[in-house]
Design a protein that fits this description.
- The complex is a heterodimer of chains A (about 60) and B (about 700).
- With about 60 residues, chain A is mainly beta.
- Chain A is about 10% helix and about 30% strand.
- Chain A has one helix and five strands; from the N terminus they run E-E-H-E-E-E.
- Chain A has a five-stranded mixed sheet, with no helix packed on it.
- The N and C termini of chain A lie far apart (about 35 Å).
- Chain B starts with a strand and ends with a helix.
- The model of chain B has no long low-confidence stretch (mean pLDDT about 95).
- Chain B is of the alpha+beta class.
- Chain B is globular, with a radius of gyration of 24 Å.
- Chain B contains 28 helices and 17 strands.
- In chain B, helix 1 packs across helix 2, helix 6 runs antiparallel to helix 21 and helix 19 crosses helix 22.
- The chains are: A mainly beta (about 60), B alpha+beta (about 700).
Chain lengths: ~60, ~700
């Protein structure tokens, strides 16, 4: 189990930032991803592996019109 | 040319550090024109823009004033930063009046050239009071220091014709047309309460007048009630430092840094330069936030037909500069050129359609069940030229369509119009009826609060159902975001001072997706900071979009990326550089809070602004109908288990809906308590004397309003 934006989320072997975003339907382009407090650049989403019990923050940067 | 009724000469004041120090007062009852001093008191307490508007309005009206009372004013001001050309989004005009929809002060803002040219003509603010007995227009010639009021019977009413004709009339030649800006409305404004104001700017490449709108709250209705057809300003000679800034080099430096971000990052972030605010339509649908069929659901598979790519590839002209004031590199005022109209009095003509902005696609599209870009653009055009606030119109028609589909009203009431979701022909016909002041369209313009009463009392509709599904608070229709799953945004809308517009706070992602503000206190803090911060744009004459629709590449490193700290510092730096003051980001919030709390007290003075006025319709909080519950059944069942310890498997649907409602209404009450505490209000929503004193707003006239309420 991992945490995604403070809430529990099932973990599976081979999970990456990209696969997690796809699973969560986080399609918004303008986001910040931090895993255990570490910033993950967009170019690393495909290969950045998420480990069991990681704390993942996906900040959507939108504050409306 | 119409008969000149008044000819007035003045000496245009020189602008120093963002202020001309003068405001213009015109009473159209007796054609009185006066010049007023902008005092240090006004600058200290109200800063400018919306602050000046509300202060003048406060002094013009009484608690008995109604929207159509002669003493009601339309006040407009651009603010001390308005008109600088080195940063993006610096041409906003703020407008205020007592609204026909709400009965309390409404404020609305628009781009276009009017506000800056008004200031360069020597006026920090403009008060329009009284009621004329004949159609007139007011022309302000800022170069020659002259104001003329003339009869305007012969001019057309609809904005695309009127602005074009007046721009030509007051220009010496084609090149001169960019120096003229017109404020006008349209033929529908006088037939309802949701008339808006168009602010023009001439586009020399397309050779048409373009428009931005001060749309909310019926300002155009008031303009026509005063029998003013148009306000026209002309000023030739815009240069980069007409504000006589204290420190031009800092403004230049901040501007260059910002424009580089825009150049480098916009295509990777929000594509504002390609599509403008409509870039978010697909995102809203994917996150279950796009209002669909009167806010019943948050998206629809058909939304792909009205996606940003469709508008970019098939409808909107690309590659032309689309800023609504000089120097804006965000350039988001997109438009569809040579658009062929298929209905109404201009059927068969090709026109330029300004937009569509997000609210247009969501409101006139998905919220009406219309997934046809051509229909949306035609609705967009007619709302604009007829002078109709498309948000109020769209949300009202969505309500009507749901009433129709739930058999609360029928064809006997609508003049035979089949007002079902998706019927684009019926929507266009309603617009044309509103323009003519005929048929069911005439009722539409009264807005949801009035329609609920009519449908119940005259048509026998179910009052409880209509209260639940009519998306209005304080009499103003909701802006176009579905927000049932964000408690913070429920408060952001319903506790907004003027009514449910999202320019105070848009917290849906922070709350619902990011989970950054889980507690009542966290939400209350957000509902303190963001309204206070965002109010500031309206004090100084700036557009909010450049703040956070593009952010620095290293914004992620900051402690509070949602606030975009670098851009906040830009605003502090620019304010200081223009005015010569020395504020910091906390003082910026203080400037805002003075006006924010003043506006709340103003609403109290006018009979609203208490706890009873801050309740949303239940559609805002949760599922009203079985279909809504079932559309998110997994989520709602989960919440029954986790939040209330209930077993949804042992409950029928009505029980589940009722339990969800009890819980959510209680959550909203607790949010109100927390927000009121954070804003320094009593439990009844009244600003306390202690709060007013702490921010330097314990003025005798404000204390006189609140003390009986304590």
């Amino acid at each position: 189990m991992i945490k995604v934006n403070t809430e529990p989320h099932p973990w599976y072997s081979g999970m990456t930032v990209r696969s997690l975003l796809d699973e969560k339907l986080f399609t918004f382009r303008h986001i910040i991803v931090r895993v255990n407090g570490e910033y993950v650049p967009e170019e690393e989403y495909e290969r950045f592996a998420i480990q069991d019990e990681d704390d993942v923050i996906v900040l959507h940067l939108m504050a409306g019109g | 040319m119409g008969t000149i009724l008044k000819d007035y000469s003045y000496t245009p004041a020189k602008i120093e550090r963002g202020y001309s120090g003068k405001s213009l007062y015109i009473n159209v009852s007796d054609l009185r024109i006066e010049e007023k001093e902008v005092t240090d008191f006004m600058k200290e307490k109200f800063t400018g823009g919306k602050g000046f508007d509300l202060w003048y309005l406060w002094n013009a009206v009484t608690p008995q004033t109604r929207w159509n009372s002669p003493e009601n004013e339309i006040v407009m001001s651009v603010g001390p930063l308005g008109g600088i050309t080195q940063y993006s989004g610096t041409g906003k005009t703020l407008v205020a009046a007592i609204s026909p929809l709400t009965g309390i002060p409404i404020d609305s803002n628009a781009g276009g050239y009017f506000g800056p040219l008004l200031k360069f003509s020597g006026w920090d603010a403009f008060e329009l009071q009284g009621k004329s007995d004949k159609d007139i227009l007011i022309f302000i010639d800022g170069n020659n220091g002259r104001i003329q009021i003339e009869e305007a019977d012969e001019y057309p009413e609809d904005s695309h014709l009127l602005a074009e004709e007046l721009t030509r009339k007051f220009s010496e030649n084609e090149d001169d047309m960019v120096n003229v800006s017109v404020v006008c409305t349209g033929s529908a404004a006088k037939h309802g309460y949701m008339g808006m104001l168009n602010f023009s700017f001439y586009d020399p490449r397309r050779k048409v007048c373009r428009f931005k709108q001060a749309a909310r709250g019926g300002l155009g209705t008031i303009l026509r009630d005063k029998k003013v057809k148009a306000l026209v300003v002309k000023y030739k000679g815009v240069t980069p430092n007409l504000n006589n800034a204290a420190d031009l080099s800092t403004i230049n430096k901040v501007g260059v840094k910002y424009h580089k971000q825009m150049h480098d990052l916009d295509s990777k972030q929000n594509k504002m330069r390609q599509i403008g605010t409509a870039n978010t339509v697909m995102i809203m649908s994917q996150y279950d936030l796009l209002p669909t069929r009167n806010f019943q659901t948050g998206g629809d598979p058909e939304v792909v037909k009205i996606s940003p790519d469709v508008f970019i590839n098939e409808w909107l002209t690309q590659g032309l500069h689309d800023g609504c004031w000089y120097g804006c590199t965000m350039s988001c005022a997109k438009c569809a050129d040579h658009f062929l109209l298929t209905s109404g009095p201009y059927a068969g003509e090709r026109v330029t359609v300004d937009g569509p902005e997000y609210e247009c696609v969501a409101g006139l599209g998905s919220n009406l069940g219309i997934f046809d870009p051509q229909a949306i653009l035609e609705e967009n055009f007619y709302c604009d030229t007829y002078g109709i606030d498309l948000i109020s119109f769209a949300t009202t028609v969505a309500f009507i369509m749901e009433c129709y589909e739930r058999e609360q009203i029928g064809p006997d009431h609508t003049g035979g119009l089949e007002l079902r979701f998706g019927n684009k022909y019926a929507v266009l016909e309603l617009l044309h009826q509103m323009s003519r002041g005929e048929g069911f369209g005439r009722l539409v313009g009264l807005g949801i609060r009035n329609l609920k009463k009519i449908f119940v009392e005259q048509f026998g509709a179910d009052a409880d159902l209509l209260e639940d599904i009519g998306m209005e608070t304080k009499g103003l229709e909701y802006a176009e975001y579905s927000h049932k799953e964000s408690l913070a945004q429920q408060g952001g809308f319903a506790m907004a001072t003027k009514g449910p517009q999202h320019d105070e706070a848009w917290l849906i992602f922070m709350d619902m997706v990011n989970k950054q503000i889980p507690t009542f206190e966290d939400k209350a803090n957000a509902l303190y900071y963001f309204p206070m911060f965002r109010t500031w744009f309206g004090l100084v004459g700036l557009c909010k979009l450049p703040w956070n629709d593009i952010v620095p590449a290293d914004n992620y490193k900051t402690d509070s990326p949602a606030k975009v700290p670098e851009h906040v510092q830009n605003y502090v730096d620019i304010f200081n550089a223009v005015t010569g003051q020395n504020i910091d980001k906390d003082e910026l919030i203080l400037q805002s809070e003075r006006v924010y709390q003043f506006q709340r007290v103003f609403s109290v003075r006018m009979g609203k602004g208490e706890r009873k006025d801050d309740y949303p319709p239940y559609r805002s909080l949760g599922p009203v109908t079985p279909e809504e519950y079932l559309s998110r059944q997994d989520l709602y069942d989960k919440q029954l288990r986790e939040y209330q310890g209930l077993d949804p498997d042992s409950m029928d649907l009505d029980e589940k809906i009722a339990a969800t409602r009890r819980y959510r209404e209680d959550q909203y009450e607790q949010l109100m308590d927390a927000v009121y505490r954070r804003r320094g209000w009593t439990n009844n929503g009244i600003p306390t004397p202690e709060k007013l004193k702490a921010i330097g707003m314990d003025l005798p006239q404000l204390l006189e309003v609140i003390e009986p309420k304590l």
